[in-house]
Amino acid sequence: MVEQNGSPPIVVGVDDSDAARRAFAWAIDEAVIRRCPVHAVTVWTVDPATDFIWTPSEQRRKIAEEKLSSTVRLAVQGRADVPTIVERAIEGRPAKALVEAAEDAAMLVVATHRGERLRKALLGSVSAACVRHSDVPVVVVRPEPQGT
Fold first, then answer.
1. TM spans, by residue (predicted)?
2. I need a labelling partner for 90 at 20 to 30 A (CA). Which of 32, 39, 65, 127 fits?
């Protein structure tokens, strides 16, 4: 996964949450310092247990790609220095897909979300799974403190 300039990329998990946007901004800042690219990765899946309206997988992929492109555009807007950003929409389980996408990367950057205790208790935390299973360093960016 070594890029043209010889530096491995920073892989960052991106969704449309404020926490993920903050993690993406952190990854961009770090990539500027390191002079390396960023791979912005969004993970999508078809889950009949939680998806009450069936949507074809090709349409889900397209929606994920469009959301990712929009997030990338907003993240770089107004920045003087922007590293090379590669957008990737991957189908799969979020933690597994992110860990696999980050093989041979400089690091994996993920966000942790505030709340959602029931979901985390039932399904587990993506950021915690990435920390446990990744072979590269993982940076977990916390959400903005409430009230700021």
1. none
2. 32
